[in-house]
Amino acid sequence: MADERTDEEILRRLHRGLRERRSPQDVAVDLVALRAERWLSAVGARDLYGLMRRRNAWQGATDPTAWSMPSVWRHHPGLTRAYAAAGTAMAAVTASPAPHADPSDPAALRTWLGWATGVLGLPGDPPPAARPTTRRRPVPVGTWNGTTYHRLPKPAGARGDRGGHVDARARMDAATRRERLPGVPVRAYRRAVRAVLHLQQRTEVLAAERDREAAVAFGKARLAHLVSAEDFVACPATAAFTAYYVARLNLRTRFTSGRQTRPMDSLGEALLEGALAAPTCRPAVLAAVLTRWRVLDLLSDAECGALLGRYYEQMAACARALRASYEPGRDPRHMIVRAGDDSSTWNAASRAFNQARTGWLNLTRGLGYDDLAEASCPGKVPALVAADVAAWHAREGHDQHVDVRVWADLPLPWDVVLGDDECPADLVRDACERHGVDPERSGWTQPFRQDLTELPEPAPDLVHGVAVASPLLATVLRRAGIFSGQA
Question: Which ranges of 143-185 would DSSP assign to H, the alpha helix?
Fold first, then answer.
């Protein structure tokens, strides 16, 4: 019974790790404690124990704080203080009971704000976008002594941009206030207006952060956050592969002019074989992070259909985020970061879009819906490359990835997904042929396939993408601002 309780604790810890950013070597330690070698071949067991030993030798078996990088994703804490301040201000204005809202949920806050703006006589229309549709870029400004510096131009409007919330000038006049809120002092009313408008502005920021967090989570770990604890614990072999593969998916990006590390390695392949051979295999758990056809073949038609809809909805959500972030004047043949670009949001949304697109193509081909993919085949979305990395490529005699030239010849993928444009698979094949790209092997008309299987190795400690040999040295360099341009 003690071993069963221990296995249960390990599986629960592995399940919590699906929503974190654990390193593969830390997951390997739990897999050894779970006795995962029971489902592995001799080569797989050797890789597992070798990864654990290298982790202990490099990181220190008795020092849990040696790993200097955070193991959790950045998460907006919510608007507890702003919500409490707005609630206190509203209590001084009206005696009617206020609806309860979760300060970490933008939808609940918007419902509460609808009630508050109605009481205060503010417009009930949704607030304008916090960020202007046209990107503001630094402009040269002359000074009195003849020098020049650059600054962002002032936004348009009588009082500038309203910052994403209702204009405070729309509040009730004195006569209307005395009629609708008798006995309420004008200072209390105006205090409530300021608190509610501040909360409304912060709510739009929170909603954007939640969208960014969802894009980051899906772009890295796909649908792992939807795996329930009951399904995960039901099959230890399935749990072992899922936890390890998610850790590999969450590997951080390196600062390099070459290719990034691929997620699937030989140990992951061995764990997948063990999971598929287990009598208690949970294909739905595997399909949440891996949409290979041999995994999808184990699902029912209803499960595949639900998964197909979920992937397309995720692709549509990413398409809306990409459309809002894309600057119409940008040359699509040069996807290099410029001043004013929000590259973090764009790269998170593009990564999530490409992941959703790959899963959607896998499901359409696996279900036999080839005609659907032939009629509408949205292209891939390239990431924005940092200018220093682009200069590094140019110095080595390389140009941008050929996929950038292909995407520039196709309709915008978000327009195709949202139904505003058409992009049949034949159009994609013609664009690939013009640039010497194989549309099937490169993942344009067929699901992308990893071209090689990596060898298991511990994830290195990185400082802004640069590998550092010592975790202690990594902490010192990070605090000093090395590699980040911060002194």
Answer: 174-180
CB 67, CB 27: distance < 8 Å: no
In the block, tokens 């909805």 appear at 313
Question: How far is residue 104 CA from its own chain's centroid?
Answer: 18
| Per-residue confidence band for 31, with pLDDT thresholds at 50, 70 and 90 | very high
Contact 404, 363 (CB under 8 A): no
The residues pairing with 454 across neighbouring beta strands, listed in sequence order, are 265
Cβ atoms of 288 and 224 closer than 8 Å? yes
Q: Sign of the CA dihedral 154, 155, 159, 161?
A: negative
What would the DSSP string read from start to end of 419-482? Answer: TSS---HHHHHHHHHHTT--TTTTTSSS----SSPBPP-PPPEEETTEEES-HHHHHHHHHHTT
What pTM was computed for the model? Answer: 0.83
Q: Residue 237 in contact with residue 280, Cβ under 8 Å?
A: yes
Task: Report the distance separating Cα 354 and Cα 349, nearest Å.
Answer: 9
Per-residue pLDDT tens digits for 320-331: 989 988 988 889
Q: How far is CA 312 from CA 20, 124, 195, 324, 447, in A?
A: 25, 32, 39, 18, 14
Tokens of 72: 């959790």
Tokens of 162: 């309203």
Q: How many angstroms separate the CA atoms of 32 and 286, rounded? A: 20
What confidence tens digit (pLDDT) does each residue in 415-427 have? 999 999 999 999 9
Given a contact cutoff of 8 angstroms between Cβ atoms, the answer to whether 356 and 348 are in contact is: no
DSSP 142: E
Q: Please compute the mean of the pLDDT values over residues 219-245 and round it to a whole number.
A: 95
Taking the C-alpha atoms of residue 104 and residue 454, their distance in angstroms, rounded to an integer, is 40
Specify the range with the lowest mean pLDDT, choosing from 62-66, 110-114, 321-325.
Answer: 62-66
**Strand, helix or coil at 149?**
strand
Q: Is 82 exposed, middle or buried (0-12, 13-18, 19+ CB in 10 A)?
A: buried
Domain limits of the chain?
Answer: 1-18+23-65+227-290+465-487, 71-131+161-220, 315-456
- Cα–Cα distance, 335 to 378 (Å, whole number): 18
Question: What integer is the mean pLDDT of 235-250?
Answer: 97
Cβ of 43: how many Cβ atoms within 10 Å? 12
Short-list 38, 56, 23, CA closest to 273: 38
How far, in Å, CA of 423 to CA of 415, rounded?
A: 9
Distances (CA, A) of 444 to 157, 167, 277, 361, 434: 44, 46, 32, 10, 14
